[in-house]
Amino acid sequence: MLGRKLAAALTGTTELAGRRIARLTLTDLEMPAPSAVSGASATAGAPVAAGAPVTAGAPVTAGAPVTAGASATSSASATSGASAVSGAPAPVLQTLGADIATPGLAAALVESQPHVIFHLAAVVSGEAEADFEKGYRINLEATRSLFEAIRARGPGYRPRVVLASSIAVFGPPLPDTIDDSQRLAPLSSYGTQKAIGEMLLADYSRRGFLDGIALRLPTISIRPGSSNRAMSGFFSSILREPLNGRPAVLPVSDTVRHWFASPRAAAQFLMHAAGIDSARLGSERSLNMPGLSATVADQIAALRRAAGEHAVELIRREPNPAIEAMIESWPRQIDGARAQALGFRAESSFDEIIRTYIEDELGGRLPSGMQRSHDS
Amino acid sequence: MLGRKLAAALTGTTELAGRRIARLTLTDLEMPAPSAVSGASATAGAPVAAGAPVTAGAPVTAGAPVTAGASATSSASATSGASAVSGAPAPVLQTLGADIATPGLAAALVESQPHVIFHLAAVVSGEAEADFEKGYRINLEATRSLFEAIRARGPGYRPRVVLASSIAVFGPPLPDTIDDSQRLAPLSSYGTQKAIGEMLLADYSRRGFLDGIALRLPTISIRPGSSNRAMSGFFSSILREPLNGRPAVLPVSDTVRHWFASPRAAAQFLMHAAGIDSARLGSERSLNMPGLSATVADQIAALRRAAGEHAVELIRREPNPAIEAMIESWPRQIDGARAQALGFRAESSFDEIIRTYIEDELGGRLPSGMQRSHDS
Hints:
Strand order of the largest sheet of chain A: 5-7-8-9-13
Shape of chain A: globular
Helix content of chain A: 25-40%
Order of helices and strands of chain A: HEEEEEEHEHHEHEEHEEHEEHEHHHH
Number of strands of chain A: 15
Oligomer: homodimer
Structural class of chain A: alpha/beta
Distance between the termini of chain A: 34 Å
């Protein structure tokens, strides 16, 4: 999901990290339809882009390719990425359907030496817990394979690698507000794998093999599409489903507090990270992203304001102690001051987050049934 | 070095973790001579021990095997380990010369389902920095292979795994005294690999595949034998060499403060860790070991008290800014309260550490030349 959001955002711009974007390669397990990524001339499945004219002869270094491997999950939300041949008037978008864990794939993806690589591939929290081997294969081994493929290009190649990490790297005991000194103490395999990815990124950066930055993303809400296997999925579905006139299940109490940003904000975090001067990062390559601390009650109140009581009534409470216990071990608020000083920005209310969902996913207006409800 | 110290200590006892020790298997890259491990009937190189009578028919579960893989380093200090066939009157010591990174070795080592596995195999700090690939192959991949081999035995097998970690998992900014809330921020590939090992151990333990405990060992001083490639090696050589009448080089200033324990204390930490009830550990499987905070000047003063000014004069100062800078990023003092509450004990002075060295390595007395110096 996030990879496609990112690719769509990138095709809507012309520059990344101060360079003109020439080619974007989006790699995902499930081959996205070209229409899934808006705003670009896209050729699905072709290993080489052909949807837009490619000017030969321009130096390869002028491109700002964007690559991110697809996870082996079947969920569209799991991952993706985006890569360049320079000189096209609009970015050329390539899509490649492949499992990031495929031997040799990482080497092929970096062969054109993209300047920027977004690595978002992941088996999400619920699935990494249910399928131990798959979680390690994708979240740890494939990540390391990508870093190794970059290192294997030799000393002349040192791309910016933006790694999607997660606040799941933190665990109890948690202060009310987490700052940069908080130790990594994940209580899930997913969080463990993300924490290891951060450590690898820092060491490969320190050694000069790549120029990494890891973003600890808030829980993304409102995720579009259908639910993935993230345990945090209800934080999106309790808003998304009612906004589309469908019922949703809430497995935790209204007082549960958590840390959020919209998909649009998350895509902007990733793009902004591509251009951060690593001299400003020092040895600490991981950044807590800014976000919004909100309770489930805050979410529901914003839903009521956006779509009326009828929408709220579509939420059915089915308490699940296992989910509540897991969520209680997650951060409630993060001090994003360092990231904010570096120019990262997030929403400040769920009203704003719901508005971005309606704009980005519903064409700017609620479905007609929900509009009536809202008007009544 | 530490594996052999551990094996020697184990052969001098009869119980480990509340069970009678039946078989010890010491696996190391360089085949140790049987005489290198005292106090046991040892058969070097034989894949199955034969040095002591083995009583057939006793349940395999009665043994308390001890296994630790050898690193691929050629340094004897790098690693080792020790494993059991039940019923022998004294522990049967097996030694196995093998590279822990050899495919299939980890599976073979756990086939007899030892109750306790000490995993000490490591490429040390200096070498992991000099040889990036070797460090990751031994310190990360071989560690994960061992954990995977244990998991592959199935749900009936859940051994205590004692992992040797290091205070090198910490990095700046460091408080004067480090406590359990200190985040892992390694500034070396070695520290990164040890931190990743701790995270894997915690996740495999949480999932019930093994029952792990990681010990963040202080810098070990006085290491016997010749120097290994650890950057901290001079903390041993400036005492060991003069105590043997030989010159030594000191690359840092006398005011440098660091955190120490003797090889004997470290072996006792490992043995004690074998028997800790994991209910007392909770989700935090890593423990900062107790130790002694001392400056180089403290070390030298203790050397003077033990062996006289002549011994101190054997230390030649050759400042090395690179080593000093690396050491300055290391911990100076650790709050070992949690470990002490769990019964771990270390030395309280360098006089005591020097005394254990003389007892354990020099047969209880200084070489004759040094004795004269001491008496003069």
